[in-house]
Recover the amino acids of this structure.
């Protein structure tokens, strides 16, 4: 029993540490480590480490990753697949001196989603296991409705004296951006076989160049044009109201729990859904009131990603479906039919432990990384990050990825000049998925 407990604790710790690595380094995802762990599991089995413990490492890694990946999104403007929409509000908070607070709020959003999952697991599992087929059959219409709401709620920049029809111009811009980014995504997914990585590390993700361009490099390029800088003061104390924090946790966790059950739906799409709960715009005017909207959005998107990781486990156990690389790895390690109530309890215990460790480490890193970055000239930092993103895209996706990256960066610079939300660029994922279901 003592040996078993020791192996469980070591597995949680190993997954937690791997999550720090994958979360802090853009371009490295939990899927990379998950598939590597599956590959080496026979060797580990020969050393007396059973697949159950490897599965715990994978789950702990996925949870730890969802806590730590906010840090490069905020401090470097470098997104991964799940945090793309967090880059703009997070980077804005950094430039306004709230970078550490944004990280703390993100950690709270992820931790809150763990509590949400434990409380709401039974009713949500019951609902989705009974309505799964109906939802899947109507998935195209659901996504079309989400996309339509996203576009129709665009009001654009308010200008005193403008006519009542002015908002339709901005809706037209939003539609154009949605279609343009969607065509880019469709082309990228259809031609993904052209991505020939120089460095092979796990699965090649075509989302790396397009999301890094749409939401990362484009924002950094605009920051260079606007002569932005990181302020010397860095506020870490949370100043967001309890009401907004709870709303962000609930909306993000619920949206994340939904996509964990649905095929072809990523956490990025859940983030678009969660965004509708934020009452004001988060990505345009530099007015004080919008800071709270940005902070609430950070809470929400963090809840999306962590809840998605947790409910993916329930989807595997209840309907035998995998919705992420981590769950594919767990399914390969353990037959879904053998995941009994004891295993679920053990996995949930590992998730809670990994979440607690990740909460503490995320806050600690967020409070200290600012002291390093403020010593670096911001323009130089932007150049270094853009260069780093370009190198990663070249290494992991080759020349084809570089072409996608440059195209995506150009498109990503359009929304600020059109005075509309960047979230319309999520058409890069929404449109291809809609066409897939149709």
């Amino acid at each position: 029993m003592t040996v078993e407990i020791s192996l469980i604790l070591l597995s949680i710790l190993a997954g937690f540490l791997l999550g720090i690595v994958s979360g802090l380094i853009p371009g490295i995802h939990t899927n990379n480590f998950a598939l590597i762990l599956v590959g080496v599991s026979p060797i580990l089995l020969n050393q007396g480490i059973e697949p159950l413990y490897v599965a715990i490492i994978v789950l702990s890694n996925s949870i730890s990753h969802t806590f730590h990946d906010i840090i490069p999104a905020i401090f470097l403007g470098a997104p991964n697949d799940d945090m793309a929409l967090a880059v703009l509000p997070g980077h804005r908070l950094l430039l306004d001196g709230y970078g550490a607070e944004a990280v703390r709020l993100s950690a709270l959003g992820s931790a809150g989603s763990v509590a949400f999952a434990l409380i709401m697991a039974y009713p949500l599992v019951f609902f989705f296991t009974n309505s799964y087929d109906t939802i899947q059959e109507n998935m195209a219409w659901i996504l079309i409705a989400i996309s339509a709401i996203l576009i129709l709620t665009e009001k654009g920049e308010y200008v005193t004296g403008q006519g009542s029809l002015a908002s339709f111009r901005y809706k037209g811009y939003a539609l154009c951006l949605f279609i343009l980014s969607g065509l880019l995504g469709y082309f990228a997914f259809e031609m993904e076989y052209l991505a020939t990585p120089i460095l092979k590390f796990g699965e090649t993700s075509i989302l790396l160049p397009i999301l890094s361009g749409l939401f990362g490099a484009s924002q950094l390029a605009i920051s260079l044009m606007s002569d932005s800088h990181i302020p010397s003061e860095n506020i870490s104390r949370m100043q967001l109201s309890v009401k907004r924090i709870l709303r962000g946790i609930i909306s993000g966790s619920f949206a994340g729990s939904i996509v964990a059950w649905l095929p072809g739906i990523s956490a990025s799409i859940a983030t678009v859904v969660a965004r509708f709960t934020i009452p004001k715009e988060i990505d345009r005017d530099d007015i004080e009131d919008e800071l709270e909207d940005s902070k609430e959005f950070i809470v929400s998107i963090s809840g999306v990603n962590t809840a998605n990781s947790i409910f993916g486990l329930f989807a595997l156990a209840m309907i035998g479906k995998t919705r992420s690389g981590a769950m594919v790895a767990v399914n390969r390690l353990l037959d879904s039919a053998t995941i009994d109530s004891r295993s679920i309890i053990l996995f949930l215990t590992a998730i809670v432990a990994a979440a607690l460790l990740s909460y503490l480490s995320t806050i600690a890193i967020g409070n200290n990384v600012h002291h390093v970055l403020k010593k670096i000239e911001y323009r130089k930092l932007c150049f270094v990050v853009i260069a780093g993103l370009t190198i990663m895209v070249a290494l992991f996706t080759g020349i084809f990825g570089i072409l996608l990256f440059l195209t995506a960066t150009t498109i990503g610079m359009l929304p600020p000049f059109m005075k509309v939300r960047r979230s319309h660029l999520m058409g890069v994922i929404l449109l291809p998925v809609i066409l897939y279901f149709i």
Observations:
- Confidence is low (pLDDT under 50) at residues 281-286.
